[in-house]
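=== RUN LOG ===
request id: a7f3
mode: sequence -> structure
chains: 1
length: 57
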Amino acid sequence: MQLNLAFLDPPQPPPTRPPPTAWEQLDEAARLAALGVLARLIARMLAAAPAKENDYE
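=== RESULT ===
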């Protein structure tokens, strides 16, 4: 059986910043264009969805 003592272990390097996400790599104009496309897609999906009636009575 082998035991390790925590104070003898080498110190861990500080965490580095994770690589940027795809969204972070886009410039502001591309982000605004993507948001516009998503907004139109969501609006189209909501308009095409059947209206649900609240029949609680």
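=== NOTES ===
DSSP finds two helices and no strands in the chain.
The CA atoms of residues 28 and 38 lie 15 Å apart.
=== END ===
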